[in-house]
User: Fold these one by one.
Assistant:
Number 1:
Amino acid sequence: MGVHVTHGMSSSDSPVYRLDIQARCRKCDGCLRARAAYWRLAAINEMARAQRTWFGTLTLSPDIRFLVLSRARHRLAAQSIDYDTMTEDERFTELVRETNPSITRYLKRVRKESGSQLRYLLVSEAHKDGMPHWHLLVHEVSQSEPVKKRTLQGQWKGGFSQFKLVAQGESRPAFYVAKYLAKEARTRVRASLEYGSPPEALALQA
């Protein structure tokens, strides 16, 4: 990414300026690899300073999938937008938007039941049918506020959930979660504020 300005003179001796802006397209292989590398490093940083980290997957049950799709169609129809005429990427974006409130409520329930100040990285990926599912890392901030597996799994009301405690010093889950960001441009990321930032940056947020 960068900006380059050149100038010259027109035939009428008036100055002519040309502005070239190089910006990320966010869709090519290079941009996707850069995005994956950024979040992989951020996840490794978070895992290194967390007391414990959980690696999990969340999916939607058939009835919830139907409900999400119906709500997305209804919301778009109210805006005179036909869901069926949208591209796959556009549909996925709308389905993720429709499920975001459920993700927010899930995280709030986990924090409330566990009493833990958790940090997280969540990546939404599309199933073959275009419906989202999620891969996530949940980091425990305090040793005195652990979160239990049954809380992480039990508080997800949307379908199947599975969590595994990451071994101390293990970094493979960070690579696993980040690899989905290099596969498709439509993959979405959601994370805690200042995720992956140095400890001093987080202290300023406190």
Number 2:
Amino acid sequence: MRDLKRKMRLRYNFQNKESGSISKFRLPSTWMPRPAYSNHLENYLEATLTEIASLPIRNAKSNIKKAEMFALKAIRNDRSLIVKPFDKGRGIAILNRSDYRAEIERQLQSHHYERIPSDITPETVQIVRGTLQDLFHRDEIDEQTFKYLNPQNHKIRTPVIYVLPKIHKAPPANSKFAGRPIISGNGSPTESNPPTPGGLTCDARRGIHVY
């Protein structure tokens, strides 16, 4: 309901104002407008809130059988299993966790990866931030863009690898299945710094080794 109030008040307050040039690289605003100078809008919001609060809360009915629900819970609670979608298609695979782990370790032992002694995520954050500061001081990016791209303004996590089973291909030697490796970089220091056609943030990625 808070989001509804915010959106409606923003639309009312800025309905006759030009938006101007708004950078695409900016942190989301959390500013909450004051109540609008419109009794109609505020009365509508209060009436909507009252109507929503008066709605009865009903328990949703399950669309699967009890036996199926029991089976799903058993799979979820079984730590020896892992469920992953197919690399292609809409099916899912139920794998032994030991086989899944063995496939990831097999791929990590290839020449495409290199073991490093420690996590370089904190170092990467400092490299990206320092490069962005240089771009900002050279007036190549504005303050909004700097804040948006600065990894210190986001919740950072270390990227992780996972694999999706490729059931359409024969498993390699010493493995129960073939897996497509995927690096999940959501929340990584360079997530907000993708290579762009204009080369806006390419300098921010220069000198950062990828493993």
Number 3:
Amino acid sequence: MITKELVTSESPTSEKAIVSSELATKFASEKETPYTRWVKNEGLEIISGLHVPDLHTVELKPWPRRGGRGVFINHDASRTSNDCYVCEISPGKELAPQRQLFEEMIYVLDGRGSTAVWNDAGQRVQFEWKAGAIFAIPLNASHQHFNGSGKEPVRYVAVTNAPPVMNLYGDVDFVFGTKYDFRERFGGEPNYFANKGEQRGLLLDTNFVADAVNLPLVAANERGAGGGHIRFSMAKGSMIVPPNMWYHQHFNTGTTPARYLAFKHEVVAVRNSQGVPKAWISKRVGGDQIDYADEAPIVRTLFAEALSRHGLKPRMDDAYRAELADLPPKAA
């Protein structure tokens, strides 16, 4: 599987919006935040680029407090809302127990193991997982991850909303040491992490997905057929962070289906009055999605060139024609 991503912007980037040293000095004390200071005190680095080629092999540093190895991945455009980190557990080892007042969702990259989750009332559940699993840690529940293999390391990537929580309270002990059970979020239910859930439209309401790689998907042709600019090559295990409000588009330039995970913590999506995300609605009627008919010619040229390098040709003509039947007229 080989894929490409195209990212475009109609506005200047933060890297280009450079001001004088005199003005920058006035804001120097605001560059660091309680969140970035906390990461530094953890002894870890923050990868701030748009593209991580391979999460399976990205370099990690010892993480003494957790008992594993890790690195944070956090582009400056999202540093106030989301963060991401990769963590590795050595063979036969475990991470230190932890609880926190921020949300966390985990995707297992490599290995197999188990996680124990418990509350102050003494209710405890434990479940097993392997590569490809996704699960969420209940808010402020104590938890601990274990490597189930004595030979191979475990590596996972997690997304959290730690930045706004850390920046709001500015108190590490409060964020990680508050004793309070959110009983409506977790009450020690034995099947809390069962591999099941309720499918409601495009939403699968669940706490655990055993195999996200092979999870059956719901057809969503509204987002495209089969499912200055910067280009990235994407392969298994890579991560892309489109800057906030930039247009981006995914392409499959291989011979097998490509699957990606939009891995983020989202509190509020920008939606219309019907509850439909604007990213699913044509720009012609006030949404944020560019129709095929309106995409820049260079996009199709770049796609064709990428395919040709693998001896392939575009197979989009049917999708282009099908779109025309329901395409809204352009605004006057």
Number 4:
Amino acid sequence: MSVAADTPVRINPGAVGFFRVCYHPTMLPPILSALSQHQIPERDRLNLLDDHFALARAGQCPLKTVLDLTRAYTGEDSYSVWSVLAQGLGSVRVLLQEMAYKAGDEVVFSELSPEEVGLNNLYTQLALPVYEKLGFDPKPEDSNNDSLLRPIILGVLGRARHPDVIAKARKAFDAHYASVMETPEGQPQEKLISPDLRTTIYSLCLRNGGAEVFQRLLTVSLHFAFLSLFLFSSP
């Protein structure tokens, strides 16, 4: 079979086979072009990512090839695809952080390495168009995909230290804390963080805050823990 050089050829379309596909470098440019133009179905977009991250972990595919592939996912708006993308890039971040740590038993939180700065730039490139579309706060018209995707996007941009996301996370937590701690008993608590975003916002505030933020989070967590204990133990 002969095909034009610019025709994207995908092995295992629909991800129906239980095997990994390692593409020859000459086969990737048409696939990357089709990805960037959103011409590949969701299941195949997910499978391409999953295969390449798995092959990179096994040493069968250069990490640069995988990162080049991820750039074609700029503006990706599928929760399923982003769950694989975020997990894979998170593994790359852990690897870069471990490489930056000095040998020895002392725990050292070093400054970002140039490689991790580059990864943050990639995070922003991929996630910012989706964030601009979804926004920070949940909306009544959100689809199920939107509700599931938003925490991932906020987490990715938060790890990349995006100032708008971090500022809004802190503002949301401040309002949440005030509502929990200052609302009189028996009155409805307003301005609580949506349960869908609570873990993500807590994590962002912890990562970018200090001891005071930790104590406030601990106080809120204990408050809800005691409240839950009271509710479930009441006859």
